[in-house]
Amino acid sequence: MREIIDWYNGYSWDGKNFVFNPYSVINLLYHQSFRNFWFETGTPTFLIKRLKEENKAVNEEINNRVDEAVFNKYDIENINITAIMFQTGYLTLKAVDYRENKYILDFPNREVRESFLNFAVEHYAGSSSQEMSYIVDTLVDALAHNDIKSFFAAIRALFSSITVNKREIVLVGFGFDKAERNLIDYSIEAAEVL
């Protein structure tokens, strides 16, 4: 039951009561496997494009306190990306401070978090889902077997198709600060020596 909760529970409109995604639970029971069912019903291309246009990090609105006013803006010329992500189910209320009218937003569950971030990586990096899946599997396998050479080869493969400028956009888009970006650049350079 814990795994079902982790994957498919978490939608809330008050930060106290949480509900399951019925579509995903029905598909879990039918297919007898955990997958990103809800995400198959549509992809957030529009949201990712808006995040990039506004130079916002993908994780910028996650676990941050937002003002109630965010949800009260409906100007089509100036759409608030946080409100759209909440209204479309990519973010949900995790906690509410009624005294200050502040809300903590986060992905509702593992299904939405993994799906959204995987899609965002593909979109920011310009890689196919198959390519990204292979690289992630290689990274995980290399770490599991303490195979540093294969790990850095996968890191190199991940960033080889991304120009330095585009790599900077990808890393900034996912909220890496300057020190973290420098560490990643150093790791890529070290990987090239191996």
From TrEMBL:
Protein name: AAA-ATPase-like domain-containing protein
Domain of life of the native organism: Bacteria
